[in-house]
Every structure is written in C-alpha cells, then in structure tokens.
Amino acid sequence: xxxxxxxxxxxxxxxxxxxxxxxxxxxxxxxxxxxxxxxxxxxxxxxxxxxxxxxxxxxxxxxxxxxxxxxxxxxxxxxxxxxxxxxxxxxxxxxxxxxxxxxxxxxxxxxxxxxxxxxxxxxxxxxxxxxxxxxxxxxxxxxxxxxxxxxxxxxxxxxxxxxxxxxxxxxxxxxxxxxxxxxxxxxxxxxxxxxxxxxxxxxxxxxxxxxxxxxxxxxxxxxxxxxxxxxxxxxxxxxxxxxxxxxxxxxxxxxxxxxxxxxxxxxxxxxxxxxxxx
Length: 278
Ligand SMILES: Cc1cc2nc3c(=O)[nH]c(=O)nc-3n(C[C@H](O)[C@H](O)[C@H](O)COP(=O)(O)OP(=O)(O)OC[C@H]3O[C@@H](n4cnc5c(N)ncnc54)[C@H](O)[C@@H]3O)c2cc1C
Ligand code: FES
Hints:
The chain is an alpha/beta fold.
C-alpha cells in the first residue's frame, strides 16, 4: 500500500498528493508517469510525476477531478493509502542543452512541465515558460514555475489575471522575435495541437506529451495507440513525448472520446451510490 503523506487542494478541483513510494522516487525523471489504482476493484489511471524527493522516498502527483476515479481519489485524506502506484513509466523527456526553450503549459499541466523546465534550466538552457488557465482562480505553482524559468508569461482566457488570451498568442510573438530553439507544449490535446500548429511555420521542433486513455501502461493492451508520422506508436512505452508536428491529432481526439458514454454512466452510478450511502 502507498500512503498519502500530504494532501493539498491547489485550486478548486485540482489536488496535490505526496505519496510514499521510495522505489518510484529513486528512479523518477522529468516527463515520466505512474499508473495508480485506488483499491483492488478500482480502474488504473495514469498520472504524471510532478515532483519527487529521493531522500524522503516520496513522489508528488497533481490531478484534476474529471470522472469516477479522479473524484474518488480526491476524497482520500492524508494517511489514507492507495493499492497500486506503478512507475516510473514512459520515457523521460529528452533533456539537453538546446539553447532557448519555450515551455508552454495549459491548465493542470503546469505541474507536468515544472520538472521539465527545472531540468532544462539545470542543463544550461534559457527557459521561457508560458502558463495559461481559464481564469485567475485556476492558477497554481506560478512561483515554482518562475523559479525554474528565466522568464514567465501568464495568460488567462478571461483576462481575470495577467495577460488576457490563449497561450498560443505569446508563443507566436516569441517565435516571431526569433531565437527559439525548441518548444515543449503540454496540456489538453486541443491546446497541444494548436501550439504545434503555431510553431510549424517557424520550423521549430515542438515536443508534446500525449494523454490518450490507457489501461495497462506497459505496451500490452494497445489502448494508447496513436499515429505519429507514418508509424503507430504506443504512448505508454514509446512516449508520452512525441514530435507535435507529426502527431495525427484528429485520431487522438477521436480516440479520447471512445468511452464517453461508459465514463458518464460510471460517474452517475458512483454519485448515486454515494448519495444512497450518506
Ligand atoms: C501519460 C498520462 C499522464 C497523465 N497525467 C495526468 C496528471 O498528471 N493529472 C491529471 O489530472 N490527469 C492526468 N492524465 C489524465 C488522467 O489519466 C485522466 O484524467 C483519468 O484517467 C480520468 O479518469 P476518471 O475515471 O476520473 O475519468 P473518466 O471517467 O475516465 O473520464 C472523464 C472525462 O475525462 C476525460 N479523460 C479520460 N482520460 C483522459 C485523458 N487521458 N486525457 C484527457 N482526458 C481524459 C474523458 O474523456 C472524460 O471526458 C494523464 C493521462 C496520461 C495518458
Ligand atoms: S496502455 Fe496499454 S498499450 Fe499503452
């Protein structure tokens, strides 16, 4: 069992868990993820490793409540335990001295991009980060990301904080100014798709971290299949990072919607079970 050492509600519906998992903490690298299962009847879901402490043997995950499992997870308390916490899985993000790297994060992905920005800065890159949220009340880890960046640009869709607009607008301005050697964009698929479309005319290599539905997380079930260039890839073992200019975004978006009816039914059942038991 894996104990929750710390729980924080970062903003409404986004939660941080620090979990005792020494074996995962020992090997974790930026860009990798874990597959967790709350109990023996639970479904397995992937969550990105947002941070780790090798001495303490702990791993931090940040997640948003979207369906049955993430809402069940959010109801756990400090000192509760979860049954499985498997990882680190996936290939670490390629970290090298590229020059100037723009890290773009949408929504809760600020937690995903933070260890990547930190690793890039430690490697000597000039890191410019852009973080975007729908509104001010959904902004978190601004100071953490600033500490891992040479420059930080914050946007909100509704203009309630910092710059009004989408992350792709400052991204385009930076590309027009020149001198960007690489872009890493992480967030909802639609945001990554449009970030890649923004960088494509400038010919700047753009890495995205794909988030298809996963089951086993070990390359066996085929559930996380995506099309990249001319090849079929499995995100759990070949990724999650891929060249954003090569991803078949329409296929990815369609496959993410395959189980919408079942997911809705599962969430409604869970809510009615909760209502009956309280
Ligand atoms: C490699 C990887 C890393 C991830 N890291 C994180 C993370 O750090 N924090 C976090 O909050 N989430 C992360 N996700 C997404 C997370 O796994 C899903 O939100 C979770 O599986 C949903 O489970 P559920 O039972 O709560 O909701 P479900 O009932 O399964 O789904 C509810 C809704 O969420 C959508 N959804 C389901 N799976 C995904 C997905 N993979 N991506 C986007 N939308 C999805 C569904 O289409 C549906 O609309 C990651 C996914 C992958 C593949
Ligand atoms: S999740 Fe099963 S192959 Fe990737």
